[in-house]
Structures are given as structure tokens and as C-alpha cells.
Amino acid sequence: MVGPTASLSNLHRADGSASYKCPATGFAVLGAVNGPVELPARRDALKPEEATVEVFVKPGNAVPGVGEKYVEGILRDVLSTVILRREKGLPRRGVVITLAIVGGEATERGDSYLTLLPALLHAAQLALISAAIPLPMTLATTLLGVTRSGEIIRDPSPAVAKAATSLHAISFSSKGHLLMNESLGRFDFDTWELVRQQAATICRGAATPGSDGDAAMGGTDNAHVDGFVRETVEDHLHRDYNWKLESI
Amino acid sequence: MSREAPLSVAERDFILKALQENTRLDGREADQFRPLSISFGEEYGHVKLQLGKTSIIVRISAEVTKPRDDRPFDGLFDISIELTAMGSPGWENGRTSDQEASVSHVLDRVVRHSNALDTESLCIVKGVSCWSIRADIHVIDYDGNLTDAACIAVMTGLQHFRRPDAVVRDGHVIVYKVEDRVPVALNITHKPLSVTFNSFNDGRDIIVDATLKEEQAAEGELVIGINSGGEVCFMSKFSGAPLDPLSIVSKVNVALEKVKALNAQVDKVLQVDLAKRAKLGMADESRAANDR
């Protein structure tokens, strides 16, 4: 399977940006983060002790509708948990995350955004890192589809996702917390448990309790999503600090 | 409300003084565009355009809908531009700005109302079904001259786009998938583009393709929409300092020259891309794994 590709800081104007492309599902998302910024327009909605996270999803080739609003809510909740909103300089400010869907099939009206969630979350997270917004941990997300015969498929293509009996978008933090669990369709608890286990393996590598998770890193065949996020950021840092490395 | 950081007095003076001496910040001539690069995505009608540091993605899409009651023979064509915080921190998400309105007005006039896309050819069954073509503009980096960049990108997208083939058989509309039948190009009647001029120092210095800083220092703006044949389809001089009529006439000639050059460049990249696609298509056909 061809893994996803991502690159950081490719825009000039935004404080931080990232592009993310998943060949399996065909989706490409461009993310930009501005922050911390003043949000004077909605002063009453600001909490005095923490930053406000704003998410805006721009569909690729359709009129924005309720689907975007719904997925913005999910993204805001998940990303709020991984941003250190009480860090110095962040309270009473805003972190504005803008995500544009620049590739892949158009979501039909009334369609769920579940298939896009991993791409959106990864783009948003990498853009946050690029904007140097303080994060205590990273997150890894995967999409699993359960077919009629009970087979669990990783990153199903739009056609497979449409035929699946249930779809699950599951997100784990780098410390192993289950951060997001969005499901669609009919399934029972046993199926969900199987899906969760597989998602944990995909996101965090082989389940070896107690280890710090860097054993399986670098492998291409069983590369996990957490490792992918880590490698992308590592590559970026390596390029950014090239001048420093050269001089040592 | 967030807005673009204003130019400092020193910067403004510097730009104006330099222009008096016929010099621009980036060393260009007064009627020279920044380097333009156009690339295409995997699907038809996905254009990525970069004009200097201004960068835009346009996606064209088509779907079958019902035509409007008062125009049963016409298909629909919409251009949607939404400025998000991605392009510039000065733009707010989900809020229409004046700039968005003005750019979308120019695009509407230059591309849509000049009938660059023949909407009658989009009709499938009179009054029942037609194609609705949609152009979505994503501004991902903003450094001045949004109007021209968006105009070039939309026109390139329209020329690159292929819609699925549709036929009417026994009163039923059949839309063929892209894999089943060769998709059809849109019917483009002419290729108008807009050229934006900015004036400085009481109309003595007029430049094309201003960067963001030059735009902020400008005192007036003139937009000319013109096609390669020299037909002016749009002209606006909304606000700012007055311009001498003679200079407007001479700028129309400059605009014509620019549009010819830009259209030639667009044609070239389009041909290169189509040739590449044709080659890929042939390779796909002749592959052993191809199920015939």
C-alpha cells in the first residue's frame, strides 16, 4: 500500500501550513494555521483563561453547507484537546485553522465527512506544528471500513466506503489516549472492539504494552501513522536546522 | 475585525519615489508581469497557478441540474470565490470582505457575462436538464493582483476541464462515466482576461501586476477585461485618483499585448499537459494488466 505524503510550511502568508495527501482515498487537504491572533469580534465567546480554537473547512468544489459545519465541530473538539490553550501568550487569543480540500472526489450533499476526517486532522495537526502552536502530544487518525462479510479495510476508497456496512474514524494520541471515535452505519460492540484494536495497531504500531513505541519506526511495510507524523516533522526540522547541523 | 497590516509611511514614500525614477521594488518594468507558472492536478479542471507569490487553486466541476425557468436553453455557470484566512491573515473566515466582492464582480463580468463559456452548449434537454459548471477559487497565498491571477486561473481551468458525455435516448438522459466515454471539452467562445493597472503620483506612473505593497501604496486602480482579438469586454475605474483619458486608451493597448502573451502561455501549458495525458492514456491501454 502506498503511504500518505505530507509537507510542512509551504505557504508564505499563513503562520503555519501543511499539505497532506492520501493516495488510498485520493483526498488532498491543505491546512493553514494563524495564531495566536486577536479575535475581537466575538469577545463574549472568549474564555478568559484559555485560547479559542476556530476551524474552517472549505469544500473543494461545492457550496459550503451543514456537512462542513458538523465536521468543523468535531475537529474543533479534537484539536482543542491537543492544543495547550493555557500556555503563556495563548489565553484570550484565537488559533484559526483553515482547511481547504484541494483534491479528491467531491462529497455529495448530505454525505458524511467521515472519510475525510483523517486527512483533515493530519493536515490541521501538521499545520499547527508548522505554526509552532504548543502541543503536548501528536495524534494519529485512521479510517476503517467494515464490509458486508465482516472484513476490516484500512483507508477504504470512496467506492468501497460507500458499500461498507460501517465506517469508523478513530484517533489516538501519541500517548495512547483514544481521542476521537466517530462511526457511521450498523455495527455491534464486538465489531467495534475489533476495529479499535486494529486502529490502535495502525495508529501506534504493534501493541507492545509498556514500550515507548519507537521500536517499529522506520519500517516501510508496517509503518504506523504515528511514525509517519513523526518522520514528517523530523524531516522538516532537519531541513530547518540544517544551518546549525552543518556548523557543528 | 482583522485586516491587512498597513504600509508604513517610509515604505510608501520609498515605493513612490522609486516609481518616479521608473524603478519597481522587484526590478520589473512598469508593464511587466511577475513570473507566471501554471500546473495541473490529476483530475480535469484542477489548476494551480502561481503569479509571483500569489498562488491560487481553481477546481472546475460539473453536475446535471434543472435549468432556470426563464432560460430553458441555457446551462448554469457559477464562479465562487471565498477568501479565507489561509490566503492572508487579514481575511476572516466566513465573512465577506469588500475585496472578495470586487474580485467576484470583475470575474463575473469578464468571464461569465462576456459569454466566454457558451452556456447554451450546456443544455441537455430543453427546460428539463442541463449542465451546471462550477468554478471554485481557493486563494492560498496572497501577494497582490488577485483579480488577474484568478481570471487567468479560471480561464485555464475552463479550457482544461472535460465534462462527462451525456446523450438523450428515448427521453432519458444517459451520463457516461469518464472511463466509459471520452469526456467532452467545454465550448469556449473567446478567451478574455483582465489586466489590472495601478496608478501612482497623480496618474503619472501606471503599472501592471502590482504586488501587495504596491497595491497598498497605489492611489487608483483601473481594470480592463479584453480578449486576444482586442475586444474590450469590461472596464472599471471605480475609485481613487482620476486618470487621464489618453492614458486609459494607451493602457488598453498594453492590456491587449499582455492578454495575447498570457493566452499564448496558457495555450502552451495546456498543450503540454494534454499531450502528457494522451501518452499516459495510451500506456494504460497497452498495459498487460488492462482487462479488455
UniProtKB/TrEMBL annotation, chain A:
The lineage of its organism: Eukaryota, Fungi, Dikarya, Ascomycota, Pezizomycotina. SUPFAM superfamilies: Ribonuclease PH domain 2-like (SSF55666), Ribosomal protein S5 domain 2-like (SSF54211). Its main location: nucleus. PANTHER family: EXOSOME COMPLEX COMPONENT (PTHR11953), EXOSOME COMPLEX COMPONENT RRP46 (PTHR11953:SF1). This is Exosome complex subunit Rrp46. The keyword rRNA processing applies. The keyword rRNA processing applies. It is found in: Nucleus. One of its GO terms (molecular function) is RNA binding. InterPro entries: ExoRNase_PH_dom2_sf, PNPase/RNase_PH_dom_sf, Ribosomal_Su5_D2-typ_SF, RNase_PH. GO terms for cellular component: cytoplasmic exosome (RNase complex); nuclear exosome (RNase complex); nucleolus. Keywords: Exosome, Nucleus, rRNA processing. It comes from Penicillium frequentans. GO terms for biological process: nuclear mRNA surveillance; poly(A)-dependent snoRNA 3'-end processing; rRNA catabolic process; rRNA processing; U4 snRNA 3'-end processing.
TrEMBL record, chain B:
Residues 32-164, 192-257 form the Exoribonuclease phosphorolytic domain. One of its GO terms (cellular component) is nuclear exosome (RNase complex). Keywords: Cytoplasm, Exosome, Nucleus, RNA-binding, rRNA processing. It comes from the Eukaryota. It holds the Pfam family RNase_PH. It is found in: Cytoplasm; Nucleus, Nucleolus. One of its GO terms (molecular function) is mRNA 3'-UTR AU-rich region binding. One of its GO terms (biological process) is exonucleolytic trimming to generate mature 3'-end of 5.8S rRNA from tricistronic rRNA transcript (SSU-rRNA, 5.8S rRNA, LSU-rRNA). Belongs to the RNase PH family. This is Exosome complex component RRP45.
